[in-house]
Structures are given as structure tokens and as C-alpha cells.
Amino acid sequence: MVDTFKTYKRKSRIELRPYIQGENLDGVSISAPDKKNGSPKVGDWIARNPKDHSDMWLVSAAYFADNYEVE
Fold it and tell me: Which residues partner with 17 through β-bridges?
């Protein structure tokens, strides 16, 4: 496999809210690696596409801490 990954900077902001333990996550995408690491769990976040609110995914607490800050 050829490694063709490049680094890109986001142009836009993202909408996020905290995950609430036990909430219904129907319609929220959770990656296999996040599931393997125990998500969803307290400290994780739910992100949504600001142009399509039905497009939602889980952001792990660790990824959030490394990549996002409140404006």
C-alpha cells in the first residue's frame, strides 16, 4: 500500500457537545478503534456537521483534548 496521506488544516469550526452516559446513540457513528478503546464513555464528545445535523460522530476524550479548544 502506498502512503499518500498529507497534512491538512481545517478551514471551518466544528460543533461538539459532551457525551452523556447512557444516552441513545442511534445515528452517531463510532469508529471501530474508539469502540475497542471503550467508547462511548464519560469525557467523550458528540460532533455534528453544521450543514447536516443528522451527520454525527463520536470524538474520543483524548482526541478532543489534543485537537480542540473552546473559542
Answer: 46
- Read out DSSP for 7-59? -----S--EEEE--TT---TTEE--HHHHHTT-S-TT-EEEEETTEEEEEEEE
Q: Could you read off the pLDDT of 10-28 as tens digits, one per residue?
A: 888 889 999 999 999 999 9
Specify the pTM.
0.85
pLDDT band per the 50, 70, 90 thresholds, residue 9: confident
What 14-17 contacts at long range (C-beta under 8 Å, 24+ apart), as own/partner pairs, is 14/47, 14/50, 14/68, 15/47, 15/48, 15/49, 15/50, 16/45, 16/46, 16/47, 16/48, 16/59, 16/64, 16/68, 17/45, 17/46
